[in-house]
């Protein structure tokens, strides 16, 4: 009897603490998250609502350690590459190729656009919380991982997807048919990969095996497009650090740590009743 009474009293205390956590501490944490994400949004250079302010273009020099096969300068304006000026030294004959974006073209970096949109959505949800809002599960705050994942996880593409993308039509002079390029974000870096190809003749004795999707394809990768088979002969990857992407990733990491701490606290209480709300 005494044990049952003690258990009942203990349960009542836990319920009061859980109620305080859901009603008080959650709001404090979400307010902190809101402030952090506002700082993250500033790093994405989002114009204020109705301000009509343009995002200032930034120039970045492409480089990689130990090689000068590819050099170039990229101009980034928010989530758009508005200029790319690239020099490629061909390995076989040291011929220098130069190509740049046409003046009427820009290339949207979908990863930055998606991450920015996720930040906007998170800020909107946090700013429109009702004062009587009660945190029920913990799944809401974990949506932040989507923004971070868009910057840390580039898309895996097949070589035919790269070859048929609109990026191949961005340049003047036009890219040679044996050159493919791809831009993507990896963490705090803006990366350019240049693939040099050679045509596989029908008489070749090589066993043709088309490569699947990948972030970065290696020499020897094969693919077919337009009834023509190709093999990657050389791969050049150059990159540049974008400081504000690094800042944004730091804010995302801090936000996710706050979310995890809150989730852990709720798990402690939830496990008492053998109930998992997420």
In brief:
Helix content is 37%, strand content 25%. The protein is built from five helices and ten strands; from the N terminus they run H-E-E-E-E-E-H-H-H-E-E-E-E-E-H.
Tell me what you see in this structure.
This protein has 278 residues and is of the alpha+beta class. Helix content is 37%, strand content 25%. The protein has 5 helices and 10 strands. It has helices spanning 2-43, 110-127, 145-152, 159-163, 243-272; strands at 58-62, 70-77, 80-89, 96-101, 107-108, 171-172, 179-186, 189-199, 222-225, 228-241. The strands form 2 sheets. Strands 1, 2, 3, 4, 5 and 6 form a 6-stranded antiparallel beta sheet that branches. It has a 4-stranded antiparallel beta sheet with strand order 7-8-10-9. A hairpin with a 7-residue loop joins strand 1 (58-62) and strand 2 (70-77). It is elongated, with a radius of gyration of 26 Å. The relative contact order is 0.16. Mean pLDDT is 80; it is low at 1-6 and 46-51.
């Amino acid at each position: 009897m005494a044990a049952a009474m003690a258990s009942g009293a203990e349960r009542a205390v836990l319920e009061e603490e859980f109620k305080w956590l859901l009603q008080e501490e959650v709001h404090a944490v979400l307010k902190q998250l809101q402030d952090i994400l506002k700082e993250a949004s500033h790093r994405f250079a989002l114009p204020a609502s109705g301000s009509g302010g343009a995002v200032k273009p930034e120039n970045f020099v492409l480089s990689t350690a130990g090689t000068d096969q590819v050099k170039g300068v990229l101009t980034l304006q928010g989530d758009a590459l508005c200029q790319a000026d690239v020099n490629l030294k061909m390995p076989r004959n040291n011929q220098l190729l130069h190509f740049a974006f046409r003046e009427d073209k820009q290339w949207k970096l979908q990863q930055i656009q998606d991450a920015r949109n996720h930040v906007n959505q998170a800020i909107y949800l946090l700013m429109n919380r009702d004062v009587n809002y009660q945190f029920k599960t913990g799944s809401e705050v974990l949506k932040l991982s989507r923004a971070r994942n868009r910057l840390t996880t580039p898309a895996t593409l097949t070589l035919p997807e790269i070859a048929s993308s609109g990026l191949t039509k961005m340049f003047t002079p036009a890219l040679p048919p044996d050159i493919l390029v791809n831009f993507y974000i990896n963490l705090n870096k803006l990366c350019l990969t240049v693939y040099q190809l050679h045509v596989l003749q029908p008489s070749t004795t090589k066993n043709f095996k088309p490569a699947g999707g990948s972030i970065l394809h290696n020499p020897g990768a094969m693919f077919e497009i337009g009834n023509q088979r190709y093999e990657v002969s050389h791969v050049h990857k150059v990159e540049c650090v974008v400081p504000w992407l690094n800042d944004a990733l730091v804010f995302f990491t801090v936000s996710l740590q706050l979310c995890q701490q809150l989730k852990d606290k709720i798990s402690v209480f939830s496990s008492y009743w053998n109930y998992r709300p997420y």
